[in-house]
Write a structure and sequence with these properties.
alpha/beta, five-stranded mixed sheet, three-stranded mixed sheet
Length: 368
């Protein structure tokens, strides 16, 4: 269906307008611009020149300036008038009373208050500085009790009697643990065990013992568990021995021997330990001696004398210092101990077997 054409001018205006559907494409617009550019090069547009006549009086019309002659007469007239009729300027000065500030005030209370306020301000300023000093830290020392192996000083038996001894263990990989000796007794019913009892409420209590009656008078180490007095600190361990006791030997005792006793040897009783010279025990002999060093204090004072040390010569020829029996001071005691630790001995013998021997050793200091 076609619409009827009308002669309304508004319809013509709308038809000649540009709409979205009538806008040319970008390609058509580009061709149009190129065509106009070529046309302008072939037929350039004429230049338009604008000319105007000069008007020298244009600036004078903007500002109306007086003539120099009139300006001169005006200045001259004002000067004559000022000379004949001078202007009078009247001024009046009257004294004004002010407060006197140079004399000393009679009242000293403001001054006292000012001093107090200044002292208070300075004190408050110094308080943080005075309290900012670092406090000396309090040193806390922790003392740890370290047990050293017990030396069993045994009574010397006759030459024709065996020293006895004992040992045991449960084939553990760790060495026997440090602990107190079981109660010495004539007979043994239960072997010692470093582990605490597993039954806290047993029906029949049997105390573990060792067959070593000669140790009944010796002081016992105050430890919780049973063990070897020469063992190492650590968790309870019966040691690598066999037989059910404690140690590296065999049997139901404690130590490196065989049997229900204590120490090296076999058959029960107390073997090994530390002996004194005499009763079949020969004294150790010195193989290697190291001379002690003189201290500078003793050398300046020309001090001489002898330091006596109580020591134990072990079966391997080494020396364990127990205590100082006689002291010299001046640093000589320490030098004597350091020298004696380097000595080597042929150990004392008992029945042809090396034993530990306790004796006093003298270390002499002489200036030559």
């Amino acid at each position: 269906m076609k619409s009827n054409p009308t002669n309304d001018p508004a319809d013509d205006i709308l038809k000649t307008g540009t709409t979205i559907s009538d806008s040319p494409s970008w390609f058509d617009s580009l061709l149009t611009q190129i065509r106009e550019l070529r046309q302008e090069r072939k037929h350039p547009r004429p230049q338009v020149e604008i000319t105007a006549e000069r008007d020298l009086s244009a600036l004078d019309k903007l500002v109306e300036m007086p003539s120099p002659v009139m300006s001169l007469f005006t200045d001259l007239r004002e000067a004559i008038h000022d000379y004949l009729h001078p202007r009078k300027i009247e001024s009046s000065v009257a004294p004004v009373e002010v407060e006197e500030i140079w004399s000393k005030p009679d009242d000293g209370l403001p001054k006292l208050i000012s001093v107090f306020v200044h002292v208070l301000v300075v004190s408050l300023a110094l308080v943080p500085w005075a309290t900012s000093f670092p406090k000396t830290p309090k040193l806390t020392e922790t003392a740890v009790m370290v047990y050293r192996p017990i030396n069993l000083i045994l009574p010397v038996a006759d030459n024709d009697k065996s020293g006895g001894g004992g040992g045991g263990g449960k084939k553990t990989l760790t060495p026997p643990s440090l602990g107190k000796l079981p109660r010495p007794a004539e007979k043994q019913l239960t072997p010692p065990d470093p582990e605490p009892p597993k039954n806290p409420d047993p029906t029949l209590i049997v105390e573990p013992t060792v067959v070593a009656p000669q140790l009944a008078q010796l002081s016992r180490i105050n430890l919780l568990n049973l063990g070897d007095p020469n063992g190492v600190p650590g968790p309870p361990s019966a040691g690598p021995g066999v037989g059910g006791g404690i140690g590296s030997g065999q049997g139901r005792g404690v130590g490196e021997g065989k049997g229900p006793g204590v120490g090296p040897g076999e058959g029960g009783g107390a073997g090994g330990g530390v002996f004194h010279v005499g009763g079949g025990v020969t004294p150790p002999t010195v193989l290697q001696r190291v001379e002690p060093q003189y201290s500078e204090e003793a050398r300046k004072a020309r001090y001489q004398g002898t330091v006596v040390l109580e020591a134990i010569v072990r079966r391997d020829g080494t020396v364990d210092i127990q205590r100082i029996v006689r002291s010299l001071g001046f640093g000589l005691d320490e030098n004597a101990i350091q020298a004696l630790k380097q000595w080597r001995f042929r150990p004392g013998m008992r029945n042809g077997v090396p034993v530990d021997v306790s004796l006093n050793i003298e270390v002499n200091f002489n200036l030559r």
